[in-house]
Amino acid sequence: MEPRNPDDLDGLRAASDVLGLDALLSDVERAVRDVVRGFADERIRPDIGDWFDRAVFPAELVPELGKLGLLGMTLEGYGCPGRSSVEYGLAALELEAGDSGIRTFVSVQGSLAMGSIHRWGSEEQKQEWLPGMARGEVIGCFGLTEPSAGSDPSSMKTFARRDGDDWILSGSKRWIGLASIAQMAVVWAQTEGGVRGFIVPTDSPGFGVTVLEPKGSMRASIQCELHFDDIRLPASALLAGARGLRGPFEALNEARYGIVWGSLGAARDSYEAALRHALRREQFGRPIAAFQLTQQKLVNMVLELQKGALLALNLGRAKDAGSLTPAQISLGKLNNVREAIAIAREARTILGGDGVLLENSPIRHAANLESVRTYEGTDEVHTLILGQHLTGISAFTDVRP
Fold it and tell me: What structural domains and CATH numbers belong to the chain?
């Protein structure tokens, strides 16, 4: 048998699809995947090392993402694409194969900000915001996490009080993606009637943004801290359909679903970089791909990639059928991100010293995935969600005095 050609990426991908998973996709699904893959190859890969190094988010890509129909991808009406959950998952995978920061933008814009308005907003709010956001002309962010309220959003201190027909918003949020370039924020706050959501234009008097930097992860993205200094909002700013934590949690589940797929993209790109390097790099008179330990590493990566893809596709089919549960999403996010980090780290070892150069993707993916592992629910949170599902006992015990 002849050694694989490292320059034949299509051939390497076909050989790596040991289970023939590509055949489980429809022609439409493969077409969506191929379009987004081409976009990542042409518009992300050539510059992502430089963007990551300089900590630059490529805002010029936003209208292009809108033109491709990737913003609010599964939402219906109001100029939104209305594609299937599997199609969205495949798009998330290909974008994150480029970089987690780009896929994160699509998730924040589409699943969190647009999704909240689409699900809980009034007809007037949907008409005002969603078409421009779908085109990438308006950027949104999502304010839930606070400096002292991450895994426990019920302890948030941001508060909105009534003042006649208006609301007065005070408090702060932390680790809010895109906020410094956004025109609007979906902000969740305590009220006398429980947690409610508000649409807050970022040019509102009293709205402050601090970019969180420097970072060692997600450098081609933007994360911020928000400050609300008695912002006056009209009654029309309220997302009237959302009451309690169900509102933000349903948005988070949409984002978590995208991560199940997206993390596979970072893992696959890391594996492919390692495979191609192993076929090219010679030591002791032969390619390092010929050594047993290198082959063992590559095989272990493919095992987890194939299992992760089966898991993601099964969840996607369930989501399109309307039967996907939060516990299933937690299982997917916990497993695929955890395995993706392991793959990226192992891929780096195959590249040896060159693996620390940003011209090679595994070190960047490994760094990014540390953030992906933390946001939209840590490993611990998803473990306890699954533990409660298995035992019927909640371990989220209130231990505060």
Answer: 9-135 (1.10.540.10), 140-244 (2.40.110.10), 247-391 (1.20.140.10)
Average pLDDT of span 284-288: 96
Biggest CA pair distance of the chain = 80
Q: Is 376 a catalytic residue?
A: yes
- Name the token pair of 146: 């606070």
- Which amino acid type is present at position 134? A
Contact 173, 146 (CB under 8 A): yes
Residue 216, classed as helix, strand or coil, is coil
**Percent above pLDDT 70 for the chain:** 99
Arithmetic mean of pLDDT over the chain: 96
Residue recorded with tokens 């402050």: 208
Write down the catalytic residue from 94, 146, 304, 376: 376
Apex CA 329: angle with CA 18 and CA 242, to 5°?
Answer: 150
Cα(32)–Cα(66) distance, rounded to whole angstroms? 14
